[in-house]
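Quick entry, no commentary yet.
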Amino acid sequence: MKKLILLLALLFGWKNQAQVSITQSKDDNDLKLSTLPYYSYGKGLGLTSPDSLFQLNIRFRMQNRVSYFKNEGEDAEYDGQIRRLRLRFDGYVGNPKFLYAIQLSFAPGDVGELQEGENINIIRDAVVFYRPNKHWNFSFGQTKLPGNRQRLNSSGALQLTDRSINNAKFTIDRDFGFQVHNLNEFKEHFSYNFKGAVSTGEGRNITGKSDDGVALTGKVELFPLGAFGKDGTNFEGDLVREPKPKLMLSGAFQQNNNSQRTQGQLGTALFDKRTTKSVMLDAMVKYNGWSAMSSYMSRSATDNPLTFNPADVSDFNYVYVGNGFDYQLSYLFQNDYELIGRYSIQHVNEAIQAFAPHAKQYSLGVTKYIWEHTFKLQTELTFDTLRYSGGPSTNDWYLRFQVEIGI
């Protein structure tokens, strides 16, 4: 009997020792994946195996919206839809240094219409990570590239119901490849991050369109006054109510060699390959409920942005080249209502002015945070002015109500 008790004690001690050998502190094992920033008020629904060799966190979120549109010269109309429906899994396997993240999308606007010869687009992120310590993050798979700040933020962490018109045209979005991030964030001291990526340049879920070009992306983030509270660069608005001013300055550049789509990783197919260059600059300030953001984005092509169908020269497509500025200001009241204003201006390159308009957009929004960004009510009024080359300007506007909920 004594031998049996001793054997059980040894087995129990060995099991505890095995668990301790792979378990890291809460600060180290926070699943902060720098290549896939996301806003999370909680930790979702988590499962950990008894031997601590496997961890799975489950999250979901959805956006339901109704919009009323009035475009100049057209009858008014309304639209109700599930704008986004996402399911996300993340965790580690074998050791907390080896992590994974999977994000699937199911809403029609996320997946798009199924077309012959094209892949169904439910996979947004499928990426594995090696994180040896809190300063380094290596990843392989499909996820967001280190581009402009608003695109990096989850669509569930936005103050208004959607991103800006410049983000829609000039962002670099998701791609498949390798990324390396070096993170050096300190609460009260000057901080900085370096991020780089080598990717296919063709966007997400692309097969059968291989070429001899790759996309090279680099980004620098500076925090002169120290890092934001609760990773505050990853969500819009000062929900933390920073007690001291915080500032972020960042710059990103990408060269997409032999791109096959009108917007690099996004857009429709070109008739001929083009090498494009993208520049993205961001600034963010938060203090005591106030938040201000500004950004500049541009895309240029090394050759003529127009491409023509060799079988029919009247059929053509073009790289969306040009630049734009965004300015956004908000204040969060003590009752968790927030007032937001945004102004965007977009200039297209003269080579495509006959086909694409210059644009200005004015947005005013009111958001009620019930459970921070994970449960909120949003109302937005947006006015657009579109000016085509050699033609009159058109004025369009919409009014929108949206509910965001998730875990």
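second:
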Amino acid sequence: MNNVLPDSVALELQKHLADAGVEWHLGTTAKSLNYNDGGFNLVLNNGTVIEPDLVVSAVGLRANTLLASQAGLAVNRGIITNALLQTTEDDIYALGDCAEVMGHNLLFITPLLAAAKALGKTLAGETTEVNYPAMPVAVKTPLYPLVLASPARGLQGEWVFEKAESGFGIKGLFVDSSEALLGFVLSGDCVKDKHTITKQLPSIYP
């Protein structure tokens, strides 16, 4: 989650999970994974050997744009589309994790539903641009609850933090030079402020 969490919140998340027994192996990668004699053997690049009971691979999402590229469509982090979800070929549309809509590559369910509704209307004869409202994401970490609305790539601003009155959690607001809110992250007891703060966010698009 290094692309979406400020360091101060990420470190708090790491601490709470470590307190619950999670062991962290940072700054290295998996070199090999083998299954021998009914068990796993995981070797890291730094030479550490781990014998886990279970292996879960969570490597994130990346759009597979090979077919689109071979077909002559413009691609970047996803298949590039306009606000109507049209690719660089007017009769071909893209939506979901594979699409980069007006510069946004949003890899979760809510924008997919918004895109599907807009495209459905367009295909039925009512030309409709997609509308992405502010869409905070709840991270499923019950030991240290998190809700975040990451600022869009390239926006200029700074993070401002304050601790929860209870001491459990952080409110982080990403604001521009005029103190307009462009993104946020809430953790612990600060998650209760989600709805109030979300109302202050501008739409993602338009």
